[in-house]
Amino acid sequence: MTNRTYHLVIVGYGGMGSYHAKLLEDNQNIDVIGTFDILEERREASLADGYKAYESLSAVLSDSAVDFVLISTPNDVHKEIAVAALNAKKHVICEKPVTIYSEELLEIMEAAKRNDRAFIVHQNRRWDEDFLTIKKVYDEKLIGDVFHMESRVQGANGIPGDWRHLKVYGGGMLLDWGVHLLDQLLYMVDSKIASVYANLSYILGDEVDDGFQVFIMFENGVTSLVEVGTTNFIQMPRWYVKGTKGTAVINDWDINGKMVIQNLAEAVEAPKPIKAGQGLTKTMAPPSEKAVRSTDLPKVEQAMESFYDNVISVVEGKAEPIIKNEEVLRVLRLMETIFISAETNEIIKDFDYVNSESNIK
Ligand code: NAD
């Protein structure tokens, strides 16, 4: 790692802005030297936390001591701040969803290229342990070839905060949580998308979605269901994954769960019929004890560089970004496709062909 210390200013010192400040407290290479927020009370909070409070964005951008701008404002202003910071020759870290529309990200990518500065999106949930566990199950075929995955986050508190209720700020759960779950899925499944079908929910009466379900079929045969809800008083498992030789489940953020795997070494006994409701069934009876074994989920070692370390390696030309802007762009276009599918009630095919760069002006 480098010996140099980079100076970073956080723009938007709310919930996530102050979380970044905490995460960076002990970072060897990045020093948070200040913040800028449009709200007086947040500037006071910054001073109280020991960070200089800049009076304007232009004061941040004209300060030659600043190497990095980290954007953690609501989503609608990510683009204008990012482009201005890149034009001022700052490197930029930006919160998710990077922008509301893919055209805006293209503009940012162009500004990063023109100014030869790094632009990296904080898709932090690629480092989540539940995801890395499932990715290991998938990559190492621990339940055989995975052919179906269900990824869900569900709460019962409705849409939180204020701006997340409003379209103009890029509110709604698809942009807020969907971006994480879709990013994880596309990062894991190395295949083009064959079709997308979605529905958004508006149970709470907001102008933005309070949840959604999307079915994504991949060309390699993997099918998936991604679901976010904010009106779920009973939660379903975080992950439910089926493979040709078993099933894996992760119930919660504490990675409680298991794998149940076919026991091919043992002679498989036919299941005994059970009474189910008003009928009898062998098909739905639990498999005989000898037919399956239940095992713990694999442990994941943190194989990747941390997010911030990777950002520094990228700036110093020592590594490729773990979160590539082209991947972020694909997720953004997928979310645009999900909005269209939900609105038209149609299955959308050939997503990756329609959205290949050669087809987009
Ligand atoms: P928040 O409302 O708590 O904070 C946003 C702050 O930005 C507020 O203090 C607001 O005054 C300030 N702000 C608004 N417009 C500004 C502008 N033009 N210039 C400077 N400051 C401005 O919101 P939040 O929950 O912290 O979300 C902020 C961003 O972080 C969003 O993009 C959100 O999606 C993202 N986020 C990411 C994660 C994650 O895990 N990666 C988690 C939560 C939020």
How would you portray this structure in words?
The protein has two domains: 6-124 and 305-320, NAD(P)-binding Rossmann-like Domain (Rossmann fold, 3-Layer(aba) Sandwich); 126-295, Dihydrodipicolinate Reductase, domain 2 (2-Layer Sandwich). It contains ten helices and 17 strands. It has helices at residues 15-23, 40-48, 57-61, 78-87, 102-115, 129-139, 173-188, 307-315, 325-344, 351-354; strands at residues 6-11, 30-36, 52-53, 68-71, 91-95, 119-122, 146-154, 193-201, 211-218, 223-229, 239-243, 246-250, 257-262, 274-276, 279-281, 292-295, 348-349. It has a nine-stranded mixed sheet. α4 runs parallel beside α5 (102-115), α5 runs antiparallel to α9 (325-344) and α7 (173-188) packs across α9 (325-344). The two termini are 40 Å apart. The mean pLDDT is 95. The structure holds nicotinamide-adenine-dinucleotide. Nicotinamide-adenine-dinucleotide is lined by residues 11-17, 36-39, 42, 72-75, 77, 95-96, 122, 124, 161, 163, 176.
Rounded to an integer in angstroms, the radius of gyration calculated over CA atoms is 23 Å
Mean pLDDT across the residues is: 95
Give a quick account of the main beta sheet: strands, pairing sense, barrel closure. Answer: 9 strands, mixed
Helix content: 25-40%
Oligomerization state: single chain
Helix and strand element order: EHEHEHEHEHEHEHEEEEEEEEEHHEH
Contiguous runs where pLDDT drops below 50 for at least 5 residues: none
Bound molecules: nicotinamide-adenine-dinucleotide
Counting DSSP H or I runs of 4 or more residues, the number of helices is 10
Shape: elongated
Number of domains: 2
